[in-house]
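QA checklist item 7 of 12: single-chain prediction sanity check.
[x] sequence parsed
[x] length recorded as 155
[x] structure emitted
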Amino acid sequence: MAKEIVPYTEKQEKFGTALIKFFGSLQVKVYRLSGGRLMNKFLGAPVAILTHVGRKSGQLRRTPLLYLEDGEKVVLAASKGGMSKPPLWKYNLDANPQCEIQIGPNNHLMNAHVASSDEEDLYWPQLIEIYADFEEYRTRTQGVRHINLYVLEPR
């Protein structure tokens, strides 16, 4: 019998957000210090570091994210583990699409845009192939919010 996938409770989201923040901060430090040799995977899926500008603070922010490469393009899912609210980096890219992505030891200056429906049709199956839990995240947020994909292209 398959388990029913439902939205997280407020308490689960609060704990999950704190866990993501703590682990993400550690992962960014280790990834960057090791030139992307360490903590470059999450449950087998590839991890990159997104550098973006805080829309309110103007400060540089760094976020570890699962990613998909399509030639020179990099695709990111604003999933936040299937929580009811999107990740803060989504709002930062919406306000300022200029960003940087570190994949392993290499940094790339990029411009981000929200994926079109055609791009979503192309990329969601590929993202789910590299990280199956994305499908659960989409189910969990159904009727709550749409999980945007962001396509980063070289500037």
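[x] summary fact logged: The mean pLDDT is 96.
[ ] second reviewer sign-off
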